Amino acid sequence: MEIIIATMPLWVAIVMLVVLQRPSQQAGLATLIAAIGSTLLFPVFRLFPGQLLLALVKGLATSLSVFYVLFPSLLLYYLLKSVDGMSLLGQGIARLVPERDLQVLLLVIGFAPFAESVSGFGVGTILVIPLFLALGYSSAQSAILGILGQMAVPWGGLAIGTVLGAEITNLDPSILGSTTALLTAPLPVVYGLVALAVSGGKKSVQRRWPEAIAAGVLLTIGVWGFSWIPGVELAGVLGSTLVMSFLVVWANRKLFHKLFHKLFHKAKRKRTVNLVNSARNSSEKTAHDSAEHGITKVSLGQVIAPYGILTAILLISRLVVPLKIWLKSHFVISIAAINLNLPLLYNPGFYLLLTALATVTILGTVVHKLRVITRQAWQQFIPGAIALACFLAASQVLLRPCLD
Question: What distance separates the 2 farthest-apart alpha carbons in the chain?
C-alpha cells in the first residue's frame, strides 16, 4: 500500500502527460498537488507544516540552477533563429558530406546531439526535421529521423539534467555522466543503423553499417571521456563535434588525400586561389538568396562563432585550475538551510549569457529585434520553468519523509 501511495504523484504525471496529453505546466501542478496531498492524507508520509514548507522551498531553490541555464540557452537559440542561423549551420554541415547515407548519420549522430547538448529541450529534433525534409525525405521519415537524434538527452542544455540529478543525489557529476554514457552505449550505434534503414532501407544499412557503428562508438567514447575532462557540461558538445569531424573527414578522404598530396609537392597556390574565389562567390550567392527571402544576411562563420566562444570560455573555466577555484568561491549564492549553492560565475548559465550577448554583437543586425527575441525566449521559458519548479518541489516533498 505504501508503494502505491508513494508512486501516486508519478502516475499522476504519466497520466497527465501521456494519456491526457496536457501541457507540462499543468502536469507539474497536478503532480505537486498529488505529492502534497499524500503528505496530508496518509500518516505514513505525514509532514508538519514547517517541514512541508521547507521541502517546497528546497525544490524551488534547486530549480534556480536550471533557470540560470534555461533562459540564456533559449535566448541564444532565438538570436540565431532570427537569422535562420541554425538551419544555415545544419545545411553547411550537410554540404560538407555529399553522400546521402553519410548525411543522415551526420545529422542524426552528429548535428542533432550537438544542438541538443548546447540548447537542450528538444532543439536538436526541431532543427534536423526541416533539414531532412529539405533533403527530400518524406514527412514520416523526417519525423522518425529527427526523433532518433534525441540520443544526447543526459547531456542536453550543457548537461543541466545530469548536474541537477548529481546535486540531488550527492553524486559526482563526472561519475554520473560517464556511467550514463556506458549504460546508454548501445543506443547511438542502434539509432545510427535504424536511421540508415529508415532513410534508405536495407541497401543503405549494408552499404554504411561500418560508419554507423564507428560514429556511434565514437559518440559514446566521446561523452564518456569528456564527462571526466573537461567535465560533463561539455561532454555532449565535444563528443558530437568529434563525430561530425570524423564523418566529414571520412566522407572527403579522397579529396583530403589529393589536397595533402598537392601541398606536399607545393603545387597548390593557383588552385587555392581559385577555390577561395569559388567559395566566396558561392557564399555571396547564398547571402543574396537569403536576402531575397527576407532573412538577414549572415555567414556560416558568424553562426559558428558563438559556439566557438561558448566552448572556449567553458573549457578555460574548467581546465585552468586556479581560475576554476576562484570562480567556484566568488559570487556564490549559498543558503545551507535549503541546500542552495549557486556559483554565479562558474555555472554554465553565466557563459551562455555571455555568449548570447556576444552573439548580438557578432550578428549585428539583430540589435533592433532584441526586445522581440527576448520576449520570445521569455514566453517559452515561463511554461517550462513552472513545470520544472513543480516537479522538483514535488520530488523534495516525496523525499522529505524518507529522510526523517
Answer: 84
Which residues lie closer than 8 Å to 397 by C-beta, 6 or more apart? 32, 35, 36, 39, 47, 52, 55, 56, 59
Alpha-carbon span 403 to 94, nearest angstrom: 51
How does DSSP classify residue 237?
Answer: H
What CA–CA distances, in Å, run from 220 to 107, 159, 217, 264, 272?
A: 16, 15, 5, 35, 37
Higher pLDDT: 280 or 328? It is 328
Average pLDDT of every residue of the chain: 81
Distance of CA 80 to the CA centre of its chain: 15
Q: Is 35 in the same domain as 93?
A: no
- Among 169, 167, 160, 214, residue whose Cα is nearest residue 189: 214
Report whether pLDDT(283) > 50.
no
How many independent structural domains does the chain possess? 2
Average pLDDT over residues 172-200: 89
> What is the pTM for the complete model shown?
0.72
- Give the model's confidence band at 265: pLDDT under 50 very low, under 70 low, under 90 confident, else very high: low
Query: Coil, strand, or helix at residue 121?
Result: coil
Which is nearest to 110 in space by CA: 226, 268, 234, 219?
219
- 293 inside domain: no
Residues 124 and 49 in one domain: no
Task: Report the candidate in 113, 10, 121, 4 with the shortest Cα–Cα distance to residue 73.
Answer: 121
DSSP state of 110: I
Look up the domain containing 44 and give its range: 2-60+394-403
**Which three three-digit cell numbers place residue 322?**
586556479
* CA dist., res. 343 & res. 350, Å (int): 9
User: Is residue 170 domain-shared with residue 121, that is, in the same domain?
Assistant: yes
**Which contiguous run of DSSP H or E holds residue 335?**
strand 332-335
**Of the residues 251, 283, 311, which one is the last residue of a structural domain?**
251
Average pLDDT over residues 246-263: 77
